[in-house]
């Protein structure tokens, strides 16, 4: 457990953000499929990415992805495509996260995959018989995790005849699908939309180089910190105005909370300005950017600005049930959270509370709640080490701007 105490006065800092694990993990799979000549710089220090690197290099038969959902899904498709016989497992929570939709799609392409325990969930066995997968045309629900879709798209060009992937229903987290296609294009693989179908002809990944951008999801916590600290100015290194990451949306949404973004050479500068307090409920559709939901929910509670967050259907099958986790933890601070289907509405201002914030083994719960320390005399947090999943340097960076952290 950690005790977090906020500094007095504005935050002034120059922060080197962690690299995007979304870009890093895609780049590593593409590199693995490319057959040489692909070089990468600035890979993420996040545990998810380091796990991906370790498992790609491993010669073991049983591979443990720990709690890395992206790693589990991307490697399932990758190993099936390259013909590696592997067993993939993970933490108890990882083995509760569904993967059946991806496995069914791979089976349609000729993969032989079996489940060790519960049907549709890890652990699973990818069985290699030395036969290549086949291309063709398949369908997947567009409202499933975009990681399933990206996993299939990245192996599509190495399938005989390529692939036509039709997405049915409303497409979730489309920016992540676009990110995948842009990274594929960077290494010479063309794809295009035909209505609701992504067409990827058979082709070869080309040699090339890519430098991973900093992580806009990580940046969102600094937006929240600046919003809650008058007079603050923070420079975040490694972010691009022409970013491929969907969570860049935070720069637009945070104007409602008084944070101005200036794009400069080498990164972005955040400055706090006095916002006009909204005279009506702020509504944010997180359908494309679900990882921003916790940041917005806690900031709403800290400022007392009511918000409605929509499009949260994937949040119940993340590292934890994030909708329930938000509701329970904000209740500790006497903030009401109304839940209706995949929509939550937050109203009220967080009151000082001696309660301990639980993180539920969810890195984003820890980082989203940390800025609340600026509105509390102290903030006790259980399971603070979970930030290693995506932002290992988070607590050190907070200390850099004057926060005090103490182990309890």
Percent of residues in helical segments? Answer: 25-40%
Average pLDDT over all residues: 94
Q: How many alpha or pi helices?
A: 12
Distance between the termini: 5 Å
Can I get a quick summary?
The chain is α/β, with parallel strands linked by helices and 408 residues long. The chain has twelve helices and 22 strands.
What does this structure look like?
This protein is of the alpha/beta class. Helix content is 30%, strand content 24%. It contains twelve helices and 22 strands. The strands form six sheets. A four-stranded mixed beta sheet has the order 20-21-1-22. α9 (293-303) links the parallel β16 and β17 (307-310). α1 (21-34) packs across α6 (174-186), α3 packs parallel to α5 and α9 packs parallel to α11 (363-369). The longest helix is centred in the first third of the chain and has 14 residues, at 21-34. The radius of gyration is 21 Å and the shape is globular.
Q: Which helices and strands, and how do they pair?
A:
Layout: E1 2-5, E2 12-16, H1 21-34, E3 38-41, H2 47-57, E4 62-64, H3 69-82, E5 86-89, H4 100-108, E6 112-115, E7 124-127, E8 136-141, H5 146-155, E9 163-168, H6 174-186, E10 192-194, E11 197-200, E12 208-211, H7 216-227, E13 233-237, H8 250-253, E14 259-264, E15 267-272, E16 282-285, H9 293-303, E17 307-310, H10 322-331, E18 336-340, E19 343-347, E20 356-358, H11 363-369, E21 379-382, H12 394-400, E22 404-407
Parallel strand pairs: 2-13, 3-12, 4-5, 8-9, 16-17, 20-21
Antiparallel strand pairs: 1-21, 1-22, 5-7, 6-7, 9-11, 10-11, 13-15, 14-15, 17-19, 18-19
Helix pairs in contact: 1-2, 1-3, 1-6, 2-3, 3-5, 4-5, 5-6, 9-11
